[in-house]
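Supplementary Methods, section 5.1.

A reviewer requested that the exact input to the structure prediction be made available. We therefore reproduce it here, unchanged from the version used in the analyses.
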Amino acid sequence: KGIRAAYIKQDDKEVYAFRLNESNKISYFNEYGESMKRSFLLSPIKYGGIISSGFGLRVHPILGHSKMHLGTDYAAPEGTPIVATADGKIIIQTHKTNNGNYVKLKHDNTFETQYLHMQKFHPGLRVGSKVNQGDIIGYVGETGMAQGPHVCYRFWKDKKQVNPFEHNTSGLSRIPSSKLNTYLDYIKPLQSALNKIEYF
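The structure derived from this sequence is encoded token-by-token as follows.
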């Protein structure tokens, strides 16, 4: 069930997408074997939200002095769903004085993400739970040291907190080279069928 293959043309750019179902997980790849899904979403807010404070040195809104801000703040109404920006596993789900209610996800041996000041956690999730990109993990609040409802999104690379917009957040995963020829044989008749369609 679902879309097996798709073709889009915008101006002079042509894009193909082909469905793969591996280990009961559906993914889409282009004609070169590159994933059609972003490695990380640009925002942890499911609906709306604006960046109210970026990564870097700033005057802390509560403490009143210059301090390095190691996250990106997304302001949104209290109760707005917060989503996992990539597939991962919950490694921390707790409350701390400054962070408030927060969740930390491990994505692989390189990347982790953290979501601070939650109103509450999403029901049924706990340490060890696996989540997919876009799954709701909590809700916007202002717990801990927060001024107004928002989520402080922290991005870890090699155990260091970094600016997510500067560290490969849009990199594409690929079909392993050992499986690429099999994939190309699989998509050949699908691509041929798409090319025979008469588009308006």
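DSSP finds one helix and 15 strands in the chain. These observations are discussed further in the main text.
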